[in-house]
Amino acid sequence: MQKHLRVLAIGWIAAAALLTTSSESPAAERLVVRTYNNFGVAAEEMTNARALAGVILRDAGLQAVWRDCSAGCADALGSGELLVRIVAAPEGIVADSLGSAVVDLQQGAGTLATVYADRINVLASRTGVSEGTLLGRAIAHEIGHLLLGTARHSAAGLMRALWSDRELQRDVAAEWTFSREDVARLGRGLATRSCQTCSIIAQIIPVWPSEK
Ligand SMILES: [Zn+2]
């Protein structure tokens, strides 16, 4: 489920429990997320995906502020900012994987997440769940890896490694939000977050192909 590349690790989710989540969040921490829609996901689906991911993160005490950088964002990446690319799955990506996150295991943080829109589309067709919903959940899951600073998965909640068709179709809310344990870890992670590789990753971004 996880590939370790020296200090970097890729955490991924695949399409193949129960938890409780407190909605009693303290004042939400602001989290700027730059999105790069290199796949050409329809505007409506992107809007729905951001809205859903925003709700999931809000329930974990995080206020997501979305910036569409598909046409480029020239300003330097802030320390708390994250990057989410939406592309077609490149060759060699594990079958059924919906996304990945680059996590610096030494620093316990990451900045760059990728979601595979073509895989999302296949899953949406197969399950009848909307692309926006699947995309929003996948984005929130990968952001979870970046903030939790690990490629590991949880037994319950959104950070499960495998999402079965049945789970997607039955749509139990607790399966698509962060578990209570993950919410606690997310709060700690953001408070201590320092990502010295952020600026390097931001420089790499513009040279990546659109992978359409
Ligand atoms: Zn994952």
Give a nutshell description of this structure.
It contains six helices and eight strands. It is α/β, with parallel strands linked by helices and 212 residues long. The site of zinc ion (ZN) has 6 residues, from strand 2 and helix 3.
Kindly state the number of beta strands.
Answer: 8
Distance between the termini: 25 Å
Order of helices and strands: EEEHEEEEHHEHHH
Q: What ligand species are in this complex?
A: zinc ion
List the helices and strands and how they pair.
Layout: E1 2-5, E2 8-15, E3 29-37, H1 43-59, E4 62-68, E5 82-87, E6 97-104, E7 109-116, H2 117-127, H3 131-148, E8 162-163, H4 165-170, H5 180-191, H6 198-204
Parallel strand pairs: 2-8, 3-4, 3-5, 5-7
Antiparallel strand pairs: 1-2, 2-6, 6-7
Can you give a write-up of this model?
α1 (43-59) packs across α3 (131-148). This protein has a single domain, classed as 3-Layer(aba) Sandwich (Collagenase (Catalytic Domain)). Strands 1, 2, 3, 4, 5, 6, 7 and 8 form an eight-stranded mixed β-sheet that branches. It is of the alpha/beta class and 212 residues long. 33% of the residues lie in helices and 25% in strands. It has helices spanning 43-59, 117-127, 131-148, 165-170, 180-191, 198-204, and strands spanning 2-5, 8-15, 29-37, 62-68, 82-87, 97-104, 109-116, 162-163. β6 (97-104) and β7 (109-116) form a beta hairpin. The longest helix is centred in the middle third of the chain and has 18 residues, at 131-148. The chain contains six helices and eight strands. The protein starts with a strand and ends in an 8-residue tail after the last helix. The structure holds zinc ion. Zinc ion binds at residues 11-13, 141, 145, 153.
